[in-house]
Amino acid sequence: MAYTTAGGTKKKVCYYYDGDIGNYYYGQGHPMKPHRIRMTHNLLLNYGLYRKMEIYRPHKATAEEMTKYHSDDYIKFLRSIRPDNMSEFSKQMQRFNVGEDCPVFDGLFEFCQLSSGGSAAGSVKLNRQQTDIAVNWAGGLHHAKKSEASGFCYVNDIVLAILELLKYHQRVLYIDIDIHHGDGVEEAFYTTDRVMTVSFHKYGEYFPGTGDLRVSDGLDRFEPIVMAKVMEMYQPSAIVLQCGADSLSGDRLGCFNVTIRGHAKCVEYMKSFNLPLLMLGGGGYTIRNVARCWTYETAVALDTEIPDELPYNDYFEYFGPDFKLHISPSNMTNQNTQEYMDKIKQRLFENLRMLPHAPGVQMQAIPEDAVPEDTVDEDKEDPDKRLSIRATDKRIACDEEFSDSEDEGEGGRRNVANNKKGAKRPRVEEDKKEGEDKKTEIKEEEKSKDIGAEKTDSKR
Predict the structure, then answer these.
(1) Where on this chain does a divalent metal cation bind (predicted)?
(2) Is the pLDDT of residue 366 over 90?
(3) Residue 111: inside a domain, yes or no?
(4) 408-460: per-residue pLDDT in tens?
(5) Structural domain of 55
(6) Considering only CA atoms, which of 214, 120, 204, 115 is closest in space to residue 160?
(7) 151 marked ligand binding residue
(8) Treating both helix axes as pointing N-terminal to C-terminal, what angle do 287-301 and 35-46 enclose, rounded to 10 degrees?
């Protein structure tokens, strides 16, 4: 099978986002901040990218959907645990690895529902051939195991999404460019040749401690030649790309030196194979750069050039002092010499040669889709209403999300409206005038008094 690469071909893109996702809060000092997804959304709206794609609010994945992979008792635990009843679940918290890296927070299960719901719905859209690329920046939580939380991840939305794709596709390729090994996904599909996992990550004295071949600090580019060989040998019919942004230069937890353009080259290259593509989020702990990266990669998916000068947006202060989209690499030395990388490539090619060429499978009757048609295509008859999610971006996160923490620099603080933690604001209808001026304010049903966000301590 010969693949054609048509880099400039316009693709139909659908995008999943729920305005509540930025309200969830892992706790003071925790590096994982769901607020970065709201920042990304607001930035791509102000770049006007929403006009070029279909925007959907994901359904909340049910416990039954989650147990397509996860164990029943683990999902029952996630549904039941809350900050106010943790003392009743101390043994189960230890059993399921919940409490430190994976804390209990308000709305934990709902957060998992939204993350998983967007990824599963994206797979269903691809299966129905209703889109070419599906994007869910709230997904990509690749460390979660069948019965265990791990590495800030509770429910493995990627595994659930791939299981959905396997209903229609013989072979699915999973690519992970997060700085951490995609161990949860690899483990889930370790015994099947219907899913190939390719993870680019740092190995050695680094979480999660799995996934040897060794890549050292300072990596500043990904090698397309490896993926070309994978595509030739494996010949998948669908691709899932986890775009963890902690591999970027200057990440709070990362140690690579990849620029946003370099990171997005992976999106551009895999998109060029013209296969159904699911793009997911993942890690990323310098949140101003996460928002930059995922906004730019949304533009790449849309084959749209966007200016380096950032448009004014709700979080403009975060992006100082330059207020540019792209970041410069640091002067970190790339410890991966060309000779060293050539040896790794040679070993990878040897591993690929040992695998069966394009393994086949006898396809059975196609199971029912995880997401009913009317749920996926909610508000389809009214495209203006479908885009009303643009208005929900005005909703308020809990105060603790906005801080002068060390990872966000001096420009991280801003005024936000008062909102109780976990409270849900009413959804508001957007102005249906397509070409409205960006400065037009959307009136919310409730007015909240602006207060200065409290400065929170950041700790590793």
Answers:
(1) 178, 180, 246
(2) no
(3) yes
(4) 543 333 333 333 333 333 332 333 333 343 333 333 333 333 333 333 333 33
(5) 13-328
(6) 120
(7) yes
(8) 50
Task: Answer whether residue 372 is part of any domain.
Answer: no
Dist CA 295 CA 369 (whole Å): 29
Active-site positions? 143
CATH number where 249 lies: 3.40.800.20
Determine the Cα–Cα distance for residues 294 and 278; give it in Å rounded to an integer. 14
Residue 354 forms part of a structural domain: no
* CA separation for the pair 379, 398 (Å, rounded): 29
Encoded amino acid at 173, one letter = L
Phi, psi dihedrals of residue 383, rounded to the nearest 5°: -60, -30
User: Closest Cα partner for 155 from 184, 182, 181?
Assistant: 184
Question: Does the annotation list 7 as a binding residue?
Answer: no
Q: Confirm if 175 and 239 have CB atoms less than 8 A apart.
A: yes
* CB contact at 8 A, 263 and 247: yes
Q: Is 209 left (phi over 0), alpha (psi -120 to 50) or beta?
A: left
- Total domains, the chain: 1
So what's the pLDDT on residue 331? 67
